[in-house]
Amino acid sequence: MFHFDLPQDLIAQEPSSIRDASRLMVLKRGSDQPPLHTHFFNIGEFLQPNDLLVLNNTKVFPARVQAQKSTGGKVELLFVEPIEAGLSSYGVTPLRSAGSAQASADLASSHEKPAFTDTNVAIDPEHFFDSQGPGEIWHALGRASRGLKAGTEVHLPQGKRAVVLRRLEEGGYHVLLEPSLRRPHLFSYLENVGEMPLPPYIDPEQAEQEHTQRYQTVYAEHTGAVAAPTAGLHFTPGLMEALQAKGVKLAYVTLHVGLGTFLPVRVDDILSHQMHSETYVVPEETVGLWKETKANGGRVIAVGTTSLRSLEAATQESDVPIAGQSATDIFIYPGYNFRAIDGLITNFHLPESTLIMLVAALHGREAILRAYNEAIEQKYRFYSYGDAMLIV
After folding, report:
1. pLDDT for 198-211, tens place per residue?
2. Is 151 left (phi over 0), alpha (psi -120 to 50) or beta?
3. Are 65 and 156 in contact (CB under 8 A)?
4. What distance in Å separates the CA atoms of residue 24 and residue 37, rounded to the nearest whole number?
5. What angle (nearest 5°) sits at the alpha carbon of residue 193, between those of residues 190 and 194?
6. For 8-60+206-391, CATH number?
């Protein structure tokens, strides 16, 4: 239903030379009018005073690390998100007496078998416990010559350690980090030793330092994403100032973009697809600007699908967004009734993805597929480093 033939050469391998010089397709929401073609620096022509742009101010961290096993085998880990769970769910056992009473108690209560491993995992308390207890558990993607079994200790750069607690499907792992890598120290550490997790379709030969710097919005503030909110990559400080001078307001949400956002739909019935749950924050200030915008007859325009999902998730139980932090696995597809937003700025997405389904929910499946086919004919660039679309 959401398939189209995308030439491989239209998947952007690098950003445009200037952020706001990317191309922009403008669609009138729900209309059969042909799209307008312009450049992103002209987006102000399609916005009105009292409109509100809501941007995701998450910050991508250099989540990919080159490491090795005790045997010397190479390992690559990509840290995705922290896991809020105790060690008791992994069936760990101590190699020797733990260094603290709290750690010993945790280990003593860890008698259950882990869900995806065959044997209990042995952990060295000397390396993975301190007076505060165990280190943090993270979901990571890993690559190694023979895979990583539960219990495998991984030697990270600068003498740091991690141990695999559970092996998941599709190259995923739960790993326990040593206590010195608790947040925010982990992020500081990765700034020194990590690599930016550029999308897998970008040729690593092309992934120069210039590109890794550009895989970040100019307003990024809160560290925690492994993928950029790519619709925001087109904004420059000068463009944002010009929009505000026109009377367009700016507000922010935070949703740390994870890999689940980009997972393909692998079921015939899209209703059976399970979205990855993500945590988002909607500040009180953003809710206040949302209310003010609506009261003044302005439009709320989400910058990117993550901003849209945050606002819509925050409005599921109310007529206005509810401020605060929560988690959502909201799946938006045609037939969805939008409550929080009036328009969307987004990039061009891949076939069969949940992202194109979301855009189709806003503009109509047939209309969006026509627009995508025109974008292909016009040689628009697709995906993270690609061109943009405005639907209002």
Report:
1. 877 776 666 555 66
2. left
3. yes
4. 6
5. 60
6. 3.40.1780.10
Asked whether 128 and 137 are in contact (CB, 8 A), the reply is: no
Find, among 100, 384, 333, the residue nearest to 230 by Cα.
384
Residue labelled with tokens 């988690």: 327
Q: Which residue has the tokens 């769910």?
A: 89
- Condensed to tens digits (0 to 9), the pLDDT of residues 257-291 reads 876 554 444 444 445 445 668 899 999 999 999 99
Superfamily of domain 64-193: QueA-like (2.40.10.240)
Longest dimension (CA), the chain: 71
Helix (H, G, I), strand (E, B) or coil at 352: coil
Give the DSSP letter of residue 182. -
Nearest in space to 305 (alpha carbons), one of 283, 284, 280: 280
Query: Is the distance from CB of 1 to CB of 366 less than 8 angstroms?
Result: no
**Nearest-angstrom CA–CA distance, 323 and 262:** 26
Q: Where are the domains of the chain?
A: 8-60+206-391, 64-193
Q: How far apart are CA 78 and CA 136, in angstroms?
A: 15
